[in-house]
Amino acid sequence: MKSPQEIQKIIVEEVSVKKAKLGLLPMTLLAILAGMYIGFGGIMALTAMTQVEPYGLKKVLGGAVFTVGLMLVVIAGAELFTGNVLMLTSVYARKITVKQLLRNWIVVYVFNLIGSLLIAWMLLKTGLWGNKEAINDFGKAAVAVANAKATLTFSQAFFRGMLCNILVDLAVILALAADSVEGRILGIFFPIMTFVAIGFEHSVANMSLIPIGLFIKAASNYGPETLNWMSFWKNIFAVTLGNIVGPGIFLTVFYYLSYYRPSQSQPKN
């Protein structure tokens, strides 16, 4: 296992620099895949939670299976906006520029959205939610989850987004600490399960989970008026800000000052 100092050095000097220099084509393709991978996790969570009555068990079960999304991103390889918030540490260390950071964030965010909408649309076409005459329990659960997210206040969505991405980026850090696939899976599992089970908000997950509900509502005419595209964008805006601010303060600044910057000031032998 790598030490916290070694992990920060890898993030600052290797991972973030590589991401900043990634070509536009691979960046867009890998971002689309990340949106789809997180969508797979979300769909699996919806499936696992359908018809499960005990609230705590339902949430923990959904969180446990949702972890597959980040496992695919980290181990198979993809570009995920929420994980790339950690690139801020490299900006502090002057290893990459603000322009490089924003280029990555904007491109990855847009194509995460495209990948998320794509998998939501493809799920609609599978008919696993039922049909316009009879929506099944999975379809009802998908609409209910989407509406619950879409009706959060700005403050609720923002703070849930902050706390969510602290845990998501901790999962990335724990995965980097491991030297084996098994270790990476274990490092990802518990922080991701925690954020989902508690009910925090992840912008890229919501890019597929809310549209899934919207697509099913449009196809079946089942769902409340509060679930609409305007409420979707309001949620995404608030959650995205929270996803940046949370780890942007409590992980990138704190770890930079604690583990990376002090090493830079040590005298050379």
Measured distance between first and last alpha carbons:
26 Å
How is the biggest beta sheet arranged?
A: none
Q: Globular, elongated, flat, extended or rod-shaped: what is the shape?
A: globular
**CATH fold assignment:** Glycerol uptake facilitator protein
Give the DSSP E fraction (strand runs of 2 or more residues): under 5%
Order of helices and strands: HHHHHHHHHHHH
CATH architecture annotation name: Up-down Bundle
What does this structure look like?
This protein is mostly helical and 269 residues long. The protein has a single domain (4-263), classed as Glycerol uptake facilitator protein (Up-down Bundle). 77% of the residues lie in helices and 0% in strands. The protein contains 12 helices and no strands. It has helices at 4-20, 24-49, 55-66, 68-77, 88-92, 98-126, 137-150, 154-177, 181-198, 203-220, 229-250, 252-264. The longest helix has 29 residues, at 98-126. The relative contact order is 0.17. The mean pLDDT is 96.
What keyword list fits this structure?
269 residues; mainly alpha; globular; 77% helix; 12 helices
Layout of secondary structure:
Elements: H1 4-20, H2 24-49, H3 55-66, H4 68-77, H5 88-92, H6 98-126, H7 137-150, H8 154-177, H9 181-198, H10 203-220, H11 229-250, H12 252-264
Helix pairs in contact: 1-12, 2-3, 2-4, 2-6, 2-10, 3-9, 4-9, 6-10, 7-10, 8-9, 8-11, 10-11, 11-12
